[in-house]
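How it folds:
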Amino acid sequence: MTIAKNTVVSVNYHLSSKFENEAEELVEQTSTDRPFVFLYGSGGIIPKFEQELAGKKVGDKFDFKVDAENGYGMYNEEYVAEIPKEAFFIEGQFDETQISVGKEVPMMDAEGNQMYGLVLEVADKHVAMDFNHPLAGHDLHFVGEVLDVRAATAEELDHGHVHGEHGHHH
């Protein structure tokens, strides 16, 4: 079976990234016992990643790059915000354990969408946070192998994600 829309794909890869003129650096590595499993065509992953895997079958190897624009987008300074420190008070006290430089914190925007912000600075009156994806502005390099391809079940198609081993469990 080849990778196409409505197939469940299991791949083993290592992902490295390169930001501007820096050296390429390993970001993530899967394994054969902990592969990346996804529903092809469901829109949950980088489109270029899917395009590069189209038509491949079990045992096929891959080695491709995705530029920053087609990956997680370009770094945007407008996604760095200063939030009043009071927003992080719990029972009148600033939450120092959860809100410290370098921590990634779950937040919600005005429409109730969840996102993550990286704490850049804790000042007297505000907390500076970066809401860019951690790989924004990075070129991505995927090297790996297709481990399995199977038809998605009706339930997986209905739910829009993989069930079972390495997938979502209800």
About this structure: The longest strand covers residues 138-151. The radius of gyration is 19 Å. The chain has two helices and eleven strands.
